[in-house]
Amino acid sequence: MMSDSALSCEALLKDAAALIGGETPRLDAELLLSHVTGSSRTSFRAWPDREVGVVEVARFCALVDQRCEGHPVAHLLGEQEFWSLPLKVTPFTLIPRPDTECLVEAALLLDLPESAKVLDLGTGTGAIALALASERPGWQVAACDAVTEAVDLATENATRLGLPVTVARSDWFADLPAGSFDLIISNPPYIAGNDVHLAEGDVRFEPESALVAGDDGLDDIRRITAGAPARLSAGGWLILEHGYEQGEAVQRLFSNAGLTDVETRQDYGRRDRLTIG
Ligand code: GLN
């Protein structure tokens, strides 16, 4: 997208949305223009003729070009909201998805002790751990990730938000110090290596290590379910996100590991999304 003159925000948004295409072109364009101008999205609607200066137009056009190449809006903004928390994101971790908020909801409905010990495995940006810490100040929330950049990012997000989450580097349970938890929760990688969706859209710009788990997408869920019983306190819970066609297979893995009260629940799009036990 090119322009070397000042333009009204409505004209800019219209042109950009037509170029961006995809599922949410207008929203994407508004988020990018808001980022560049520092003005709210509602101000664009209230004042569509407002002129955007040449320098801001140039910066906006450059971002629109990157969006057209497929770069996720969250990467261009450097931020993504999860559970109403503004989280810094980088290309080293998965961009938090709204569906993962279902895991947070499920956790908050559990009858856990006042100072429950909680572990978010493969925390990435820290999204799940930080959401839980923001809702339950009494819980002792720990998080881990095998990727050093994710450990640093989750730590930075915790500091920025002033939330007491401790983050450690660990390949699932392998490098964690001894100890057990009342709740273990995770959004692990669960996509099959040959899934065609990996070659399409925003997901191309996210790390494969956060998405892909072997030939059937279940390699990491196998490791987590196998390791969880030894790390759960008596009466503790495990909550895992998974693909919408993996509910039965994941329930079997929970049961094989000796977990009881196993149940698969759906996301906001009414597709199987998490299993709890
Ligand atoms: N739900 C994500 C997607 O479909 C994948 C998240 C994950 O693998 N944990 O892009």
TrEMBL record:
Coiled coil: none
Protein family: Belongs to the protein N5-glutamine methyltransferase family. PrmC subfamily.
Protein name: Release factor glutamine methyltransferase
An individual GO BP term: methylation
This protein's record includes keyword S-adenosyl-L-methionine: yes
InterPro entries: DNA_methylase_N6_adenine_CS (IPR002052), HemK-like (IPR004556), N5-glutamine_MTase (IPR050320), PrmC_N (IPR040758), RF_methyltr_PrmC (IPR019874), SAM-dependent_MTases_sf (IPR029063), Small_mtfrase_dom (IPR007848)
Lineage: Bacteria, Pseudomonadati, Pseudomonadota, Gammaproteobacteria, Pseudomonadales
Enzyme class, first EC level, given as a word: transferase
Function as written in the Swiss-Prot or TrEMBL entry: Methylates the class 1 translation termination release factors RF1/PrfA and RF2/PrfB on the glutamine residue of the universally conserved GGQ motif.
An MF annotation (GO) of this entry: nucleic acid binding
Gene3D superfamilies documented for this protein: DNA helicase RuvA subunit, C-terminal domain, Vaccinia Virus protein VP39
Species the sequence originates in: Marinobacter orientalis
Residue ranges constituting the Release factor glutamine methyltransferase N-terminal domain according to the UniProt record: 21-78
EC number, UniProt record: 2.1.1.297
Keywords tagged on the record: Methyltransferase, S-adenosyl-L-methionine, Transferase
Residues that hold substrate according to the record: 187-190
Transmembrane segments: none
Catalytic activity from the UniProt record: L-glutaminyl-[peptide chain release factor] + S-adenosyl-L-methionine = N(5)-methyl-L-glutaminyl-[peptide chain release factor] + S-adenosyl-L-homocysteine + H(+)
